[in-house]
Amino acid sequence: MAINTEELRKKFEERLSQIRNTVEAEGLRVEYLGKKGYVSALLADLKNITGEEKKNAGQIINDAKQFIEKRLAEKQTEIAAAEEQRLIDSAERYDPSLPTDLQLGSYHPITLIQRRVEDIFSSMGFIVENYSEIVDDYHCFEALNIPKHHPARDMQDTFYLDNGQLLKTHTSAAQNYIMEKYGAPVRAIFPGRCFRNESTDACHENTFFQLEGIMIDEDISISNLIYFMKTMLSEVFEQDITVRLRPGFFPFVEPGFELDISCTICHGKGCPSCKNSGWLELCPCGMIHPNVLKYGGIDPEKYTGFAFGLGLTRLAMMKYGIKDIRMLNSGNLKALSQFTGR
Ligand code: FA5
Asked: Does residue 100 sit within a domain?
């Protein structure tokens, strides 16, 4: 039985000329060189012949196989070159005179600290939620037990839009949304940018970040709150830091606490970064007020929970030793890069 691969090569060439991309090229390779391909079928036929004839036929098939492999490789190179050209043709024009020694960027200290805190809470079963920067009065205040004309609003004067909405003054504005969305039990954190009509100084900005957290379940107590606060701070700082917990008033928690950190810039001695007090208010917290649970559709007879509002921007200051909070919004790459290792 004589083996002839002329027809096979001709058909292959015909098919090859129609190939336009790597996927089609791979398909053709499988069709010809795959286990069930034409070449394998020819090789299987060898068992029907013997001796010199078998040797010759084997050689012919091998030649054909090598020919196909070579032509496929050439086609792949051709496709890659065409693809590159296509990208070059479609690419935006660039200025070849731009300097080539541009420094790589780095993450902002707040992004770094936010990711760290998110990782810590995620590992403890908290979900991470996003919330809008523009909110309504109900979510920012009323659903948090702060009715109109309540004096607590004075502390959080903000920027109002013409349509009555406002730039959120605190991440607590998302509490009601999270409660309605998930019901109880729930563990969630929600970082976000906050805005306040505020005179700025070394530890106050008009635009800053907080990271809020709530945990609601049956039998949640202050001990749970303290445990999570301690865990978060020791994981963030990875060294001993001094904190203090004192009573604090927020209409949406009862009881409420102020959690202060001993200033890491002056080590508690007093400096402009901590308004010379040696302490910085960092993470107020408390047990969620029953009214707030009720507004969120959660039965306060059955469930209790804690909430905290971590000052993320201040945490970045304390973690990286940033003396003046205003530097964080300054866009000064040279200054910022000191804290992020680039
Ligand atoms: C609040 O915003 C409450 N929503 C926090 C809260 C949540 C209390 C849940 C209880 C339960 P306060 O206004 O104190 O509270 O802000 C919280 C933290 O945000 C402060 O401790 C501080 O770390 C940070 N912060 C507040 N104002 C500024 C500011 N102007 N600049 C930088 N950081 C600020």
From this structure: no
The reply to whether 162 and 311 lie within a common domain is yes
Residues 233 and 137 in one domain: yes
- The pTM of the whole model exceeds 0.85: no
Give 186-221 as a DSSP string. EEEEEEEEEE-----BTTB-SEEEEEEEEEEETT--
Are both 192 and 289 inside the same structural domain?
yes
How many structural domains compose the chain?
2
DSSP 162: T
Asked if 192 and 313 touch (Cβ cutoff 8 Å), the reply is no
Q: Is the dihedral of CA 286, 290, 294, 295 positive or negative?
A: negative
Q: Whose CA is nearest to atom 25 of ligand 1?
A: 311
User: Measured in angstroms, how far is the CA atom of residue 169 from the centroid of ligand 1?
Assistant: 9
Q: Is 114 left (phi over 0), alpha (psi -120 to 50) or beta?
A: alpha
Q: How far is CA 322 from the centre of its chain?
A: 24
Q: Which residue's C-alpha comes closest to atom 3 of ligand 1?
A: 309
Taking CB atoms and a 6 Å cutoff, what residues make up the pocket around ligand 1? 170, 172, 196, 198, 204-205, 208, 210, 212, 250, 253, 256, 281-282, 284-286, 307-309, 311, 313-314, 325
Could you report the per-residue pLDDT of 222-273, keeping only the tens digit for each?
999 999 999 999 999 998 899 999 999 999 999 999 999 999 999 999 999 9
Residue 257: both structure tokens together: 């606490």
CA distance 92 to 244: 56
Last residue of a domain, one of 60, 89, 118: 89
Which residue range forms the structural domain that includes residue 267?
Answer: 109-339
Residue-by-residue DSSP string for 222-258: HHHHHHHHHHHHHHHHSS---EEEEE---TTEEEEEE
CATH of the domain at 123: 3.30.930.10
How far is residue 222's CA from residue 308's CA, in Å, rounded to a whole number? 12
